[in-house]
Amino acid sequence: MIMRTLKGLQSLITTTEMHTLMGPVGWQIDPDLFDETSGVPRDEYIYEVYLRSDTDYTGSISVPILFDKKTKRIVNNDSADIMRMLNSAFEHLVPSDTDYCPAEIQNEIDEMNAFLHGPVNAGVYRAGFATKQEAYDEAISDLFGTLDKLDHRLKSQRYLIGNQITEADWRLFTTLIRFDAVYVTHFKTDRRRIADYANLCPYLRELYQVPGIAGTVDMDRMRAHYFCSHLHVNPNGIVSVGPDFDLLKPHGRSN
Prior knowledge:
By secondary structure, the chain is mainly α. The protein has nine helices and five strands, in the order αβββαββααααααα. Strands 1-4-5 form a three-stranded antiparallel beta sheet. A two-stranded antiparallel ribbon has the order 2-3. Helix 4 runs parallel beside helix 7, helix 7 crosses helix 8 and helix 7 crosses helix 9. The longest helix has 24 residues.
């Protein structure tokens, strides 16, 4: 999301989320999107990057990762930490007027992030990976109860924290952008679509239309990853046709 920081730090760090695909033994550097300056070998699996950083590593193999190209080690693999680090930790190297987590409202942002994480960001997975009806029902109730509250909140204000885009908006964006295209079908979150919400829908379009953001969204790759890598959910790996959802339609949220 924080494009100026990534561009300014290409000689020092790299992130992998946009350049990976799910291979037969986990995440793999995508040879079609390979970056010669990334500091990792072509065709390398992410688990190999983890093991080169720590030969005794036994934790989960996940993306995104923040990778130090000079020391050849993973700096961080937590998306929330990485987002905040890219927002401010390198300010002395890449100054910018953009700040998605201003100090004066950081507590509000942290509270909103916590409000979003369990029922929404993680909630879609709780619903999609549920193996018992009761667990699915609970996840769906929490998910849509929270989405309804967010839609109501956005009726009276432009963004989640007042009238400026913050880290909280981008954390919600990552779930909303996948919702109708993936989660409604793949994770059975089909009580309502984001397209059905009076305020969440144009809000999503506004965030998508922020300069530089659309280029980070590859809907075809996104859908192929979910439908083809979770074979316990979709055993035959069939990718659905997907919705007709125009993200470039005017959002009308100018005040």
